[in-house]
Amino acid sequence: MAAGRGTRLGADLPKALVPLGAVPIVTHALRGVLSCPGLTDVVVVAPPDRMPELTEAVRLAPPAAPVEVQVVAGGAERTDSVAAGLAAMPGGVGIVLVHDAARALTPANVFERVVAAVRHGHPAVTPALPVTDTIKIVDARGHVVSTPDRAALRAVQTPQGFLRETLELAHRAARGAVTDDAGLVETLGRAVFVVEGDPRALKVTGPQDLAIADGWVADVTRHDGQPLVPPVLLVLGGRPGTGKTTLARAWAAARGAAHARVDTIEQALLRAGDAPDRSPGPEGYAAAYAVAADQLTLGLDVVADSVNPLAVTRQAWQDVARRTGARVLQVELTCAEAEHRRRVDTRTADIPGHLVPRWEEVLTSGYEPWPEVDLSLDTTGQPLVELVAAVEAALVKAAVVDAAAPSRGI
Question: 254 and 193, same structural domain?
Fold first, then answer.
């Protein structure tokens, strides 16, 4: 990914840091890049005066091992920035993709088409779309000079893919400014192969583009009606006081996700019933499953926040994910005993009518072992941002497949 210093949206905010939905554009772009199978290395090139902000935005899309992500300073022009990113790429990388962070919602299949073309013998590849408008060539005085045949025209996108030696040669021989790296290869007299692009690879260059992209983020369906990416069902579990709701709220805020909290649902059901003082029954969990399924069907990420103590409740959440086509991550929270007891003894209810359990009740409540859990997090003394990052890293790791290809980098 390359980010130069020229294009900005607004007075002071670089384009890569402009919010798109709940997170910066560059975070969306990096999440898309990290969904690409076989990835080994990512270099994010940042304006030198915005390194701290770009580094923090990158942290919102943590990679999974074995993917390495680093942020390096770019230059004054696009070619300078790409050259800086190329220089930072480890020596073993044989295929390099150059991607514009402004094309933040580029689907994963575009990355895959580009890489496949390079692997099949094309040293330089770019995705592109046919041009639908009539194009005029105009001289300096505003007069039309000619009208090229639009059947031969293409609107070029990114990521552009290269054999590393081809891209390095093009940069060494670069003369003058070009708008893309395929153009540098063209100046060598080398052929650039074109694969199909995607309308979702829109380049956000102004407020109108940003409004369109915002709409796509809010409505997470592709132009063909299929999900842009499968929604995520994050299933939390753990004894009361281990920090489930705190983590659920933080992750939901970072993701723009729905928060299905069983305590809230149970208390609402009790207040609406004839016996508000009775203990919650299974109805709260049943309602939470239904609410979560509705949100996932819409394409929204969901965090399921409950003690989730039994194999039957854990299986029920798995069934919700299966019915809705969601990716599921099961996370169990624990806490060191002394800190756990302190939290339980000092916490107060944040839901009207909710009776928080005492320490003895926490210890004696039925909580079955969870050997099939995907991720265990000890929340003792851990900063909340690190817990959220650990969840995101686990999600990325689960999504990365075919990681055995050692010669590929972005």
Answer: no
pTM: 0.54
The total of other beta-carbon atoms located within 10 Å of residue 324's CB is 21
Shared-domain flag, residues 207 and 249: no
| Measured torsion, CA atoms of residues 106, 110, 112, 118, in degrees rounded to the nearest 10 | -120
Contacts within 8 Å (CB) and 24+ apart, 363-366? 365/239, 365/240, 365/307, 365/309, 366/309, 366/310
User: What does the pLDDT average to over 261-270?
Assistant: 91
**Angle 177-183-185 (CA atoms, 0-180°, nearest 5)?**
115
Query: Is residue 405 predicted with pLDDT exceeding 50?
Result: no
Which DSSP string do the residues of 70-93 spell out, in sequence order? EEEE--SSHHHHHHHHHHHS-TT-
Contacts of 328 (CB under 8 A, 6+ apart): 232, 233, 234, 235, 317, 318, 321
Domain that holds residue 201: 15-222+404-409
Q: Which pLDDT value is given to residue 396?
A: 64
Q: Which residues contact 310 (CB under 8 A, 6 or more apart)?
A: 366, 368
Regarding whether 278 and 313 lie in a shared domain, the answer is yes
